[in-house]
Each structure stands twice: as C-alpha cells, then as structure tokens.
Amino acid sequence: MAKKIDRALYGPSMTEVVLGAFLSIILGILLAALYLVTKPVETARELPKEPVPGVVYFLEGSKDSNKGRFWNVKQQQLVSGRAVTLIEDELNAAAAGLKPPAPKKGEEATEAKKSALSVGTANFRVREGELQVGVPLTLNTFDLGLSAIVQARGVFEKRGDQHAFVPSTLLVGSCRVEKLPFVSSYVMGRVYSAFTVPEELGAALAKLSEVSLDGAQLRLTP
To answer: Is the pLDDT at 145 greater than 70, yes or no?
Structure first.
C-alpha cells in the first residue's frame, strides 16, 4: 500500500525510468533493423553514374550461359587435381546446380514449417579482386514471408587447414550486420548450410593449397 502511495506521489523510481529507457532503445533498434532489412534494394548490373542517396544497390553478377558452359569441364579438372581459373559466369553456372538438401521422406512439410529462412539461388560477382555473394532470403518467422537479399563482399583467408570466405561487408536487405558477430555468423551459416556440394567437388575444395582473387577471376590451386 505504501509503495502505491509513494508511486502516486513521486512517480516511477529511478530503476524503472532507466529500465524503461533501455527497453525503448532496444525496441527502437529492432524496429530500425527490421525497416532496413525489409527496405527494397535496387538490383542493377552496374552502379549508376549518379547513385540515389540512401539507396542500397545489389550489383548482380553475369550469368551468360555461353561463358558459363565451361564450368563442367573445369569442375572435372579441379576434381582431378588441376588448378583452374573461374570467371563469374562459371561460378553462377555452378551456383545454379547447388540445390538445397532434400528433406527426408515424410519431413517435407515439417522442415518447411521449421525453417526460419528460405534460401534462393546464389549469385556471384567478381570485381577488383573481391568476391560478392548475393543470396535471396525469405524470412518465414511468424508467417511474415518477408523477402531480402543478403550481400556479402570479401576475400578468402586461410583458416586452419582450409580457405574460408571472409566478408568485409555483409548486408541483409539494407541493414549492415558484419559488425554483429552473432547475427553475421548465423546468416552466413544458414546460407552455407542451405546448399549441398557434390562429394568429389567438396573434397577437392577442402584440399586447395591456394585460393586467390585476381581482378575479375577466382583462381583455385590444389
């Protein structure tokens, strides 16, 4: 009773004020992040001469089927232990063949329902010694069906015995998340796990001694 009287006379306590302000800040950050994630991204082949301020662009890599037709040959060369140099058209031809792992019999509906993220076909772009990976995502949480494009730009670094793609920039929609380690690792992990790589190719990639980016080419050396 005394607390109710004190509250009526003096208002909320300092603890309540601080907690309320903290929760307001967190809510504001979450709403801002959700807005940026769902904010439309402009897809283009090249950056406009006069980019629109505040607009995030997704520069799509080339998917020319004529230029990409050599991927199958280079895949066999890589599996047989030979070095190969790939252009983005060949990388995108490879991406088109990387399908999500098929759910086990009787699990199709439950897997789709449980999945928080549905992942589309990846798109690769190689420019100025940097690799960009773009992946369309659909956020299925709470049945919202929100769509966004994940853009990761970076290079390859040796991590232990294998080479890993290390993004210096990571966007989900228009929201930059590379400085949020838990968010970025979850997003990239979810993208990686959504695709299956043929066993022989995966084994060859795991044994690479060097992975380098040169201009608009990716070089893989066993």
So the answer is: no
Domain boundaries, the chain: 2-38, 62-221
On whether the CB atoms of residues 95 and 102 are closer than 8 A, the answer is: no
* Pairing relationship of beta strands 162-172 and 175-176 according to DSSP bridges: antiparallel
Whole-model pTM above 0.85?
no
Q: Is residue 58 a contact partner of residue 173, using CB atoms and an 8 Å limit? A: no
- Measure the CA–CA gap between 144 and 142, rounded to whole angstroms: 5
CA dist 14 and 205 (Å) reads 58
Handedness of CA 104, 109, 110, 114 (dihedral sign): positive
Let me know: does 109 contact 196? Beta carbons within 8 Å: no
Q: How many residues comprise the chain?
A: 222
Residue 155, amino acid: V
